[in-house]
Amino acid sequence: MRTRKAILPDAEQIYELISAYSGDGTLLPRTLAEICENVRDFVVLEDDSRIIGCGALHLYGTHLAEIRSITVAPWAQGKGGGGRLVKALLAESRRHRVDCICLFTRKPEFFARQGFSVAQREDLPDKIYKDCHACPRYHCCDEVAMVRGDLPKFAILPEPANWLVKLQPWASNIGGQTGSS
Known about the structure:
Oligomer: single chain
Radius of gyration: 21 Å
CATH topology: Aminopeptidase
CATH class: Alpha Beta
Distance between the termini: 73 Å
Mean pLDDT: 86
InterPro entries: Acyl_CoA_acyltransferase, GNAT_dom, NH2A_AcTrfase
Number of domains: 1
Number of strands: 7
GO biological process, one term: L-arginine biosynthetic process
GO molecular function: L-glutamate N-acetyltransferase activity
Low-confidence stretches: none
Protein name: GCN5-related N-acetyltransferase
Keywords: Acyltransferase, Transferase
């Protein structure tokens, strides 16, 4: 077994692996288009040139990255592949000089063995603001937040858009005006 950076032709196999675990809720579903757009975030696990696992590292900034969509084919589990994926993603985070790696999981025991510890969701505002608000499980999330490294002391949240047009009700007769300038 070996890990390598994913390339675009891997996207369909990554999609199939993630889809196999999104039906039971183990992983959040990802569309093929989303995987294609973010394929540079992914690492794949190969055995005899066959992709048997994947995982992604999503960067929020040098203060925080997230391991997401990590999975190994059912028949290949228990052979160290998941640990290899985590190590490859941690190496990638070090290459980018990221201080803290987070993840949300239903398998905290596995990630505890990889050096992660339980954290509070509130300590990860970048993740919550950017991803969790759009999640269908937002109000009933049963995933455990975990981190490795020092918790971020700041967040990089998007600025409100100044260029948006502000619509105001149009009054037909304000102060004697007829509504036209």
